[in-house]
Amino acid sequence: MSDMPPPDWLHHLVGVKIVNVVSGVAGGLVRGMIAPGFTLTQRVTSAIVGGLTAGYATPAAMPIIRKWLDLWSYPTGDIEGSVGFCLGLVGMTICDAMIRWARRWRDGPPPPSPPGWPSNNPGAPSP
Predict the structure, then answer these.
(1) What does residue 6 show for φ and ψ, rounded to 5 degrees?
(2) Which residues, 6+ apart, have CB-to-CB distance to 44 below 8 Å?
């Protein structure tokens, strides 16, 4: 029984693997350290969002990355931690893009201008 690895308590608690969260937090910390002008709050937030992004997105990204690496006959091995680190590194960017996409989808296209009014399109000629 001593050969058994310790149970992944975080996976049982919230459904994410601890290796993904830790590697995502590390990626978020690196992003916070290399970004110029970040405050301490922004650095901590980057680490938290990096951990959450990696924790939940790594299982979804792994099949895609494995298929892509198989196309190149590259031996994949255990790359889950590396994928989690990369997702943690770009986690804030991914979340920002998803929020902007959701707002655009929610708001829809702008309504057309009534006849005789200036166009909503700044490049369009005036009537």
Answers:
(1) -65, 150
(2) 32
What is the pTM assigned to this prediction?
Answer: 0.66
Compute the average pLDDT of residues 30-48.
88
Residues 6+ apart with CB under 8 A from 127: 115, 116
User: Which residues are CB-neighbours of 80 under 8 A, at least 6 positions away?
Assistant: 17, 19, 20, 23, 58, 62
38 CB-near residues (< 8 Å, 6+ apart)? 32, 46
pLDDT score of 59 more than 80: yes
| Rg of the chain, C-alpha, whole Å | 21
**Three-state DSSP class for residue 117:** coil
Cα–Cα distance, 5 to 2 (Å, whole number) = 8
**Chain segment 83-101, per-residue pLDDT in tens:** 899 999 988 888 888 888 8
Residue spans of the domains in the chain: they are: 9-107
Of 16 and 22, the structure prediction assigns the larger pLDDT to: 22
Q: Are 21 and 55 in contact (CB under 8 A)?
A: yes
